Amino acid sequence: MKNKIISAVITLILGVFIIPLFIGYTYSIAYGIYGTAFTAPAMLVAVVVSVVIEKYSKNKNVLIMYIKHLFCSLIFSLLFSLVNFNIDTFKDTIYLSSLMGSIYITIFVIFDYLLKSLNKSNHFG
């Protein structure tokens, strides 16, 4: 659980710098800070879902686990887009939330895997 929380925090910190790439015409860290305020609750959901995925997965292959995380991220993005439903901006919202969700979950899974690997090597070294 500790690794997942650390991975979520790292993902949110990196997200501050990634979000401005997709919002507005000029790069502004203010967009990243503002966007992170909205993505932080989603990262809490990601931590809980990740724990559930790892607990109940029979196949512990890293790629399979990543695909499961990505699938959950896309479902969450779709739900987010439906909650913020506006017929004029739905396609943009679903595209942007799916893209950001995919980027965030990729960063999250990478850091979670790296932290797990680091912890395993410290226990036996």
Compose a concise summary of this entry.
By secondary structure, this protein is mostly helical. It has helices spanning 2-18, 29-56, 62-83, 90-124.
SSE arrangement:
Layout: H1 2-18, H2 29-56, H3 62-83, H4 90-124
Helix pairs in contact: 1-2, 1-4, 2-3, 3-4
Give a verbal description of the structure:
- The chain is an all-alpha fold.
- It contains 4 helices and no strands.
- The chain is globular.
Task: Work out the radius of gyration.
Answer: 16 Å
Task: Give unreliable regions as ranges.
Answer: none
Query: What best-fitting shape do the alpha-carbon axes yield?
Result: globular
How many angstroms does the end-to-end distance come to? Answer: 22 Å
Continuous helix count: 4
Order of helices and strands: HHHH
The beta-strand count equals: 0
Instruction: Determine the mean pLDDT.
Output: 85
SS-based class:
mainly alpha
Main beta sheet, described?
none
Q: In percent, how much strand structure appears in the residues?
A: under 5%
